[in-house]
Amino acid sequence: MERRTIGAGALEVGAVGLGCMPMSWAYSGSRQRGDESLRAVHRALDEGSSLLDTADMYGPFTNELLVGRVLKERREDAFVSTKVGLLVGEQHIVANGRPGYVKRACDASLRRLQTDVIDLYQLHRADPEVPVEETWGAMAELVRAGKVRALGLCAVGARGGRRSGGLYDGTIRQLRRVQQVFPVSAVEAELSVWSPEALDTLLPWCEARGVGFLASMPLGNGFLTGTLTPGQGFEPDDMRARHPRFTAEMMAANQPIVVGLRRVAARHGEAVTAAQVALAWVLAQGRHVITVPGAKRERWVTENAAAAALRLTPQDLTEVAELPGAQGSWE
């Protein structure tokens, strides 16, 4: 698989990574199977999808434990990214950016992941009660202690609240502040055919500074794969049950996006899928972009990894860019 770099330290990863969250969190619990997920992680590493993206809050904790079972056997094949800064309660999620907590959380993640070092440690969300410089300073101390190799920041976009001004203005302000403390190696933010907002300001900010861009939800929570049926319904614990774009009405209204992706895919051969076109489009947006589709089955991991070899033509890119915008926004 094509390799791409993250940050000034030139950390290399496969162009297509693996988002491990669906294995333990946010999607239908009845379809989460540990052994099947373990096979999916192993397949990702076999395919060159070396970046494994997790977080202590996924589960909580169970996702890191699952990834750790693979890392125990194949640490040299993997680039592990995990996150800190969010605590999960019974009915709520709160931020905690206190330096002491960050250090304890890192040690706990290292134990669950069964590794001596985390390749990329990301701040999931800044704590409004703690200056972000203090949180970032604690994370920088973990790098100096050899527990972490590089630091990243998760962007707050439309899903983090209503925008005031540009969608990612708040994230860029945070980035400017923490850059004064310790270099940012990567930013993780949503980027997909139906959520392209990061292209306006956030991705250019990263490109200008050599900061890696981890594109989360590049398949639109599964919609852009074309495998979901309008009105199919979702289990109550599935985040799509409350997602404005996954009502029966909006799924039907957004079908032209999937049709357009399939049309482009057909020009590249019968085996090429809409999902692969969606991923290839994301990868075409910049040399430091790494796409991180979530998956929990070997079949989808293999299909996603193959997208790294798909080269879209200028005509393809123009056609995808001109697809209708998504209906049913978070706003």
Low-confidence stretches: 160-164
β-sheet strand percentage: 15-25%
Rg over alpha carbons: 19 Å
Structural class: alpha/beta
Shape: globular
* Cα distance spanning the termini: 37 Å
Quick one: how many beta strands? 12
Mean pLDDT: 93
**Helix and strand string, N-terminal first?**
EEEHEHEEEHEHEHEHEHHHEHH
Q: Outline the biggest β-sheet.
A: 8 strands, parallel
Helix content: 25-40%
How many DSSP helices? 11
- Sequence of strands across the biggest β-sheet: 3-4-5-8-9-10-11-12
Outline the structure in words.
This protein has 11 helices and 12 strands. Strand 9, helix 5 and strand 10 form a beta-alpha-beta unit. The longest helix has 15 residues, at 99-113. The protein has helices at 34-47, 62-74, 99-113, 132-144, 169-179, 202-209, 248-253, 255-266, 274-283, 298-306, 314-321; strands at residues 3-6, 11-14, 18-19, 51-53, 79-84, 86-88, 93-95, 118-123, 148-154, 186-190, 212-216, 289-292. Helix 1 packs across helix 2. The chain is of the alpha/beta class. Helix content is 36%, strand content 16%.
